[in-house]
Amino acid sequence: MKRLLAAIGAMIVLLMPVIACASTWKIDPEHSHIGFKVRHLMVSNVRGNFEKFSGKVEMNDTDIARSRVEVSIETGSINTGVEKRDEHLRSPDFFDVAKHPLMTFVSRKVAPGANGRLKISGDLTIHGITREVVLDVEPISPESRDPWGNIRRGTTASATINRKDFGLTWNKALETGGVVVGDEVTITLEVELIKSVDK
After folding, report:
1. Sign of torsion over alpha carbons 108, 59, 31, 98
2. Helical ranges in 58-199 per DSSP H
3. In the chain, what are the helix, strand and coil shares in percent, each to the nearest 5?
4. How many alpha carbons fall within 13 Å on the CB side of residue 52?
5. Based on CB atoms within 10 Å of each CB, which residue in 14, 87, 89, 188 is the most buried?
6. Which fold has domain 22-195?
7. Are 190 and 33 within 8 A, CB to CB?
8. Torsion angle of alpha carbons 27, 77, 156, 126, nearest 10°?
9. What is the number of other CB atoms lying within 10 angstroms of the CB of residue 4?
10. What pTM was computed for the model?
11. SS3 152
12. Residue 17, Cβ neighbours under 10 Å: how many?
C-alpha cells in the first residue's frame, strides 16, 4: 500500500508542471471574426462571415501539443451582405440550417511549426458530414491585460476546404464555360481569447 501511495504521489508531482501550465481560454465573439471567400462566376470572390459562434482553447504553453481547440458556429448566422443570397445559403441547397444548425471544429492534433506557427488538425463537421481539416495558425500573441482586468491573447488561422466534401454540391453551369460557385472555400478566423478565471 505504501509503495502504491508513493507511486501515485510521484505521478501527481510529475503532472503538476503540466497542470500548472494549462489554461482555458474562451473566444470573445465581440472581438473575433469568422469569415470565408469563394469564387463567383469564375471572375471574382464573394466574401461572407458567420455572426454567431463560440469556442474555447485548452492551452498548454509548456507542451503545446497537449492543447485542444473547440469551435461551434451557427450556420443560420451567415452574412454575405445580400439577404436573398443568404436565404439561399441557408436553404437545403447549401447549409440546410433547419436540419444542420451548427458546424463544429474539434482538434485532434496540435503541432508546432516554424517561427511560432502552429498546425492544428481536427474534425470539421458541416451539413452533417465530418472531414479532417488542418488550420494554419499564426503565432499566438503574448498575454495582455485589458482595462477591466481580463487577460487576453489572439491569433489568426486559415484553411481551405472543398465544399463538395461536405455535401454542398449545388451549382449551375455558365454559357461561357465554368460554374456559378467555385468548389474551394477559404476560411479565415481572427480570434481574440479571454482567459477563464477559476472561482
Report:
1. positive
2. 83-90
3. 20, 50, 30
4. 8
5. 89
6. Lipocalin (2.40.128)
7. yes
8. 100
9. 8
10. 0.86
11. strand
12. 11
State which amino acid sits at residue 29. P
Distance, in Å, from the CA atom of 78 to the CA atom of 62, rounded to the nearest integer, reads 37
The answer to whether 41 and 180 are in contact (CB under 8 A) is: yes
3 state SS of 76: helix
- Residues in the chain where the model's pLDDT stays below 70: 1-21, 198-199
- Residue 139 grid cell: 503565432
Match 462571415 to its residue by C-alpha cell: 49
Side-chain half-sphere exposure of 138, counting CA atoms within 13 A? 13
Give the cell for residue 184.
474551394
Beta-carbon contacts of residue 35 (< 8 Å; ≥ 6 apart) = 47, 48, 49, 50, 187, 188, 189, 190
107-137: per-residue pLDDT in tens?
999 999 899 999 999 999 999 999 999 999 9
- The count of other CB atoms within 10 Å of the CB of residue 94 is 20
Assign 94 to helix, strand or coil: coil
State the pairing for strand pair 181-195/22-27: antiparallel
Q: Which three cell numbers stand for residue 82?
A: 445580400
To the nearest 10°, report the CA torsion of 58, 20, 30, 160.
-30
Determine the Cα–Cα distance for residues 159 and 135; give it in Å rounded to an integer.
Answer: 5
Residues whose CB is less than 8 angstroms from the CB of residue 170 and which lie 6 or more positions away in sequence, other chains included: 93, 94, 181
Question: In this structure, what C-alpha cell is assigned to residue 54?
Answer: 463560440
